[in-house]
Amino acid sequence: MLHFSDRNVMITYNLTEVLICLLVVALRFWSRAVNKSPVRWDDWSIVISFVCLCGNAGVGLYVAENGLNVTRETAPLLSLGQYMLLVQLMLASILLYVVGISFARFSVLLLYHRIFSCSQRFVTALWVIGGISMAWLVTAVLVTVFQCIPVKAAWDPRVPGKCMNEQNVFLSTEIINLLLDISIVWMPTIVIKNLHLPLRDKIAMSVMFLLGGFVGVTSILRIVFTYKPHLPTYDVIGSLFWLDLQLSCGIVCACLPTLRPSIRKLMKATTSVKSWMSSKRSGDTGRSQSKDSSMKQYSDLDGKGQQGQGRVRHWFDRRTNESATEGLTGWDSTALTTIGKGSMHSGTEDNTQEPEAIHVRNEVSVV
After folding, report:
1. Which of 234, 256, 280, 355 has a CA positioned 20 to 30 A from the CA of residue 170?
2. Which of 41, 145, 141, 58 is nearest to 101 (CA)?
3. Residue 134 falls inside a structural domain
4. What is the membrane topology here (predicted)?
């Protein structure tokens, strides 16, 4: 069974989440380029959130590479120096998470303001949710930094001081965080319900915005798996896992409503590539069959040894004599029929095939 505390699992997980979020953010900016729209504040907010995710992933990689990937049971085996370093890294990761998830939330609120600003009541609700989100950001940062007095007592057990109960602090801040996520996910469905759109379009838009509720699901899972007040030690590695997962889900969900132009562009490019490859295979097959037919015809003319060469020479001599006797009329007629069709008239009924020649040229140009 794989555990997140395993070194290889930690490295793979952190690199994978960064690459996925990088792809999503890149698609978001590509959508701006496809629509020829300027980069707005909601885009820059998600960039800040992505930078925080990269910092969190860096913490996870450092922990894995320096042997600090311990479980709740093996944490007491760390030396004092390792313990102090691990707690400092954990505090840094929490701060990065708080800033990152807040700016992902700000990105969604700014996007809502740009899309649904026609309703004054909705704009007022946005400002209220935005103000609460900013207050949560400031409070969470202050509580994380000053959870112990003096501050150094948070990671150095040798320093006497007074500290808050970290489990209670975590539970209270995470519950507020969850309520904010639920409010933000539910807000656009109220406006969409009143739009004059077909029911199918309303459902599609609502589902797209409700996908952001997955961030709330990760919040609930984080509370369930990391809130253990009855245990004497804190699961640092498990907390790192859930912090990274929640932040990466927040980035992806914040970008989902903006990705349609780039996804349509990718689907169109994929269809074009498949069509080109199909036509190329068809062309290669046709040329191969034509080559086989030509080789077979040559083989029939060739016969065996010099006898075949004599027949070929006799065939060319016969055609030359016919041309000398009858003139070049037969050759010109053949040329007009096979090459000049559609652009010249041979005086025969060959020009009735002219539309077919034009049709073939059009088919080739389309492919």
Report:
1. 256
2. 141
3. yes
4. Multi-pass membrane protein
What 8-state DSSP symbol labels residue 26? Answer: H
C-alpha angle with apex 271: 265 to 274, nearest 5 degrees? Answer: 140
Query: Are 60 and 127 in contact, with CB atoms under 8 Å apart?
Result: no
Identify the burial level of 200 via C-beta atoms within 10 angstroms of its C-beta, where 0-12 means exposed, 13-18 middle and 19 or more buried. exposed
Residue 239 tokens read as 């907390």
Q: Is 186 exposed, middle or buried (0-12, 13-18, 19+ CB in 10 A)?
A: middle
Residue 138 lies in a domain: yes
Q: Could you list the residue range(s) of the whole structural domain that residue 115 is in?
A: 7-265
Name the more confident of 69 and 291: 69
| Each residue's pLDDT tens digit, 116-157 | 877 788 889 999 999 999 999 999 999 999 999 999 998 988
Supply the Cα-derived Rg of the chain in whole angstroms: 36
Amino acid letter for position 38: P
Residue 230 DSSP SS3: coil
Residues 138 and 156: their CA atoms lie apart, in Å, by 25
In a domain, 158, yes or no: yes
Q: Say if CB 265 and CB 35 are below 8 A apart.
A: no
pLDDT digits (tens, 9 = 90+) for 195-226: 777 777 778 777 777 777 788 888 888 888 88
10 vs 98: which has the higher pLDDT: 98
Neighbours of 287 (CB within 10 A): 10
At residue 130, what are phi and psi to the nearest 5 degrees?
-65, -40
pLDDT greater than 50 at residue 325: no
DSSP state of 163: E
Closest CA to 51 of 251, 219, 237: 251
53 or 63: which leads in pLDDT: 53
CATH code assigned at 21 = 1.20.1070
Contact 114, 167 (CB under 8 A): no
